[in-house]
Amino acid sequence: xxxxxxxxxxxxxxxxxxxxxxxxxxxxxxxxxxxxxxxxxxxxxxxxxxxxxxxxxxxxxxxxxxxxxxxxxxxxxxxxxxxxxxxxxxxxxxxxxxxxxxxxxxxxxxxxxxxxxxxxxxxxxxxxxxxxxxxxxxxxxxxxxxxxxxxxxxxxxxxxxxxxxxxxxxxxxxxxxxxxxxxxxxxxxxxxxxxxxxxxxxxxxxxxxxxxxxxxxxxxxxxxxxxxxxxxxxxxxxxxxxxxxxxxxxxxxxxxxxxxxxxx
Length: 264
Hints:
Elements: H1 4-11, E1 54-58, H2 65-78, E2 82-85, H3 90-96, E3 103-108, H4 117-129, E4 134-138, H5 141-145, H6 149-165, E5 169-173, H7 181-194, E6 198-200, H8 212-222, E7 227-231, H9 237-246, E8 250-253, H10 256-263
Helix pairs in contact: 1-7, 4-6, 6-7, 7-8
């Protein structure tokens, strides 16, 4: 197992006398933009309905109004935490889900994360204005692999500040299938320091999706006061429960209705 503490010391300017009070395997305080030491735990509670943990998703390029309407109708019927859609659908979903507890989640910088930072910030701002209450942004994978930590923190931090000023949750997609285990650890630490609310495994549009080993690693790194979203290839109730039991606190899936129907 890679040593999370050693990775923390290698890439972050830590004070040896200042220890973390928020949980997480990094041990030393990261001097995060948002201190979480007094936050509630985001660990999965099996006593709650599984729908509370599902982002019901349709990010297909060929999605049409009828399919997004069905997504919203299922969101309302099953009381999913959110429906997750592309930016073009944010206003439509906001209208369909108004006055309901089901949130509108919108992807930003999707699916590659290789946009200019200012483009991601502008996109996030626009979708929030139009009704998004959660933003799932893709990390700049090139910057991560080149270890350009300051640029990553600056980009995620700016979007985090924007989101939190509007009471919007920020999830950051790491695209684990393209990363080494060390890079997953490093990315999780970057997101935590920059003020993200969740780390997310996958876009579902690359070479692989969520795996239990990665979910467990991400949870170990960030501790219990940050969210972990598992997404990509989660197609059954059993798989969703395994992800949640391993450390996920949110599930992204296009099979939300099927999962709920399996549970009854």
